[in-house]
Amino acid sequence: MSCMENILDDVFTKVFGEVFTGAAEMPRHDRIGRARRIVKQEAEKAGVCREDIFAKDRTRQAVIARQSVMHRLRAELGWSLGQIGQHLGRDHTTILHGIRAHKRRMKEEGNA
Known about the structure:
Elements: H1 3-18, H2 28-46, H3 50-54, H4 60-77, H5 81-88, H6 92-109
Helix pairs in contact: 1-2, 2-4, 4-6, 5-6
């Protein structure tokens, strides 16, 4: 495991493990694991690093991956806009815009 992966594991444990309030029936390690998988899957699909999901990078690939993560955290884990924003370092209105943009993009591509 690289140094950056160790740092990301610490961030996930602190952020996703301690503040999470949704899906209370799901064990803590499952919540952390699902959030990690979502970020990893979307980063790989978009061809970006996991760090880009949390960065301020505004390249098209990073934005698409980040918005997909926002949508999936909301849809699959039931997180509030504020929770997602806190975890991704963004305002809740940015999260709302990202989720709407993701849904609009999926509709345009015929995936929704």
